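Data card: per-record layout.
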Amino acid sequence: MSLSLLAGATGAAVAVPAWVALAYLVAGVFFILALRGLSSPASSRRGNRFGMAGMLIAVVTTLVTHDIANIVEIGIAMLLGGIIGITIARRIAMTAMPELVAGFHSLVGLAAVLVAAAAYTNPAAFDLLVPVTGTEAFPEPRFMLDPIARVEMALGAAIGAITFSGSVIAFLKLSGRMSGSPILLPGRHVINLGTMATILVLTGLFAVTTPVPGWVFPAICLAAFIVGFLLIIPIGGADMPVVVSMLNSYSGWAAAAMGFTLGNTAMIITGALVGSSGAILSYIMCRAMNRSFISVIAGGFGAESGGTNGDPREARPYKQGSADDAAFMLEQAEKVIIIPGYGMAVAQAQHALREMCDLLENKGIEVKFAIHPVAGRMPGHMNVLLAEASVDYDKVFELEDINSEFATADVAFIIGANDVVNPAAKTDKASPIYGMPVFDVDKARQVFFIKRSMGGVGYAGVDNDVFYMDQTTMLLSDAKKMVEDIVKALD
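The structure for this 491-residue chain is written out next.
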């Protein structure tokens, strides 16, 4: 069989069968096509299939070309993992998807740490030893852990550990097991910078010291675990969608670093794709929230302003309406813009909402959906829910494409959203969401706002002036029940 030469993890030329290089290249192409497909709801299923095909090629190629001690054990582990994955996928509610993603990110980070630890404790099994020239005292050739591999190993373990502990905190916050409010430590930025500097110093020591002190690698992992924890706990709930995206990027870079250690081209390609795409998405979301991309990486970017979290709320007058009131006004409208949010996901109201949309369109009323980049608890949360309810993709618009149309809308119909329509983001410098672009619902002629009660606030924990506007009618009820009642009234 013809051979090609690829750079291995130690920097030496390693003979690799040409078909293996080609298989990994094909897997990489499939991963690129998967990302392209996932960029649009219309092509997301095709993108998922491409990703599955690429992963199948990569896994099979790795299993065939590596000398695995016990293929039966590997098969059992894969079977168990597949069963667990299928079970979780079938049972998980759409409202729990953000914390599920955060939980999966933590597993990717932990896997990187464990692979690095295995390579460190048994470098010969990973072909990471290089010869050391003999001396008069030791004339026989000796072997040591390759310095380049040490750097790759340390970086992979550090990024993986940060991803793991940071994702665990994100999971706890998103699932409600930990408060979504920022937890501010005194001097946290100094502590973060000091810990990061410690990791870099230890990595340098790990790379150049021979023999490597036994405590250095565990110290790198421990410091990185601490950094991940410190980066995420100061971040408030309103900024968690960006955190999920950034942790996704970290998990990709961890996988890429370990790909170099293992000499696995597929891991390098996949990790680089996930890392770069996650970073680009985080940058786009930061722009949508008027946040600094650098401050995302530094941690605590959403915690500088005190806002009104936890402050007693002043009782203010508001108008309350019924499903019949909403149905009457909707029938009189020519243009309706619907703004869904996390409350719609909790109530599973997307199917009833699509039915309401169909009834309105049958009456000649124009209906559009407005999706904020950070609506819900993760990027694309609302798009997935609307796609699940078979809402046409051409009716769904992003903030920058539809915000100017609220001035010509007869009705702005808000269902379960809060922070993304809060005008405090434009006017209140003390608000934790200040600077975040929001929908201009105050420009619509009539606003209907569905929420369970006036006692609740959005994930950022601040009150919303939209509740009390003259043109706003509050529909206090479970979102699904209220929309179903509106559908009955329209029908």
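Known properties of this structure: The radius of gyration is 26 Å. Confidence is low (pLDDT under 50) at residues 1-14, 301-312.

See the next section for split statistics.
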